[in-house]
Amino acid sequence: MSIDPVEFERLVEEALDSLPERFADLLENIVVVVEEEPNASDLDVMDDPNGELLGIYRGTPLTQRSYSSFRMPDQVAIFRGPILRVTRSAHEAKRQIRETVIHEVGHHFGLSDEDMVY
Predict the structure, then answer these.
(1) Any idea what the Cα angle at residue 32 is, between residues 78 and 118, rounded to 5°?
(2) Global confidence as pTM
(3) Largest CA distance in the chain
């Protein structure tokens, strides 16, 4: 499966644009980036060392914040290489990108993996 980097980023933006307005309006001080592969510290969160990490939330969930302190922007990273390795068609990749974006944004809102259907 191959999707060029520019198209992949467009699909991530499309996924963000598809978020319901009530959630999109709450996405302040967060950056969504596309990276080719997760780094070693990203992989530390993996339960299955043979699995693929499709995305990661790097930050403090809204449910755990005190608003009196200054914070650098949180970050959601979507990993292009792993997503393309686990999908077999452009349609499947688009679906997986959207699910990954929603999943990682869910972590920003304080949802655990068990709380989410993705």
Answers:
(1) 50
(2) 0.89
(3) 46
